Amino acid sequence: MYLYTDPSCSGCNYGAYVIGMHRAGGGSANSARRLTSGVASFMRAYSVKQP
What we know:
Number of strands: 4
Order of helices and strands: EEEEH
Helix content: 10-25%
Number of helices: 1
Structural class: alpha+beta
Largest sheet: 2 strands, antiparallel
Mean pLDDT: 78
Distance between the termini: 26 Å
Strand order of the largest sheet: 1-2
Low-confidence stretches: none
């Protein structure tokens, strides 16, 4: 999941930022796990390394 920061925000970096990993969803809503340092470490440890 991502958050898009509006370019009109003065002093902000803008664009799309990854903020979570999709966990569940339905017809009208999605749920995500917030990307904390622990979640990021888990994703790195269990991701497939590309050559």
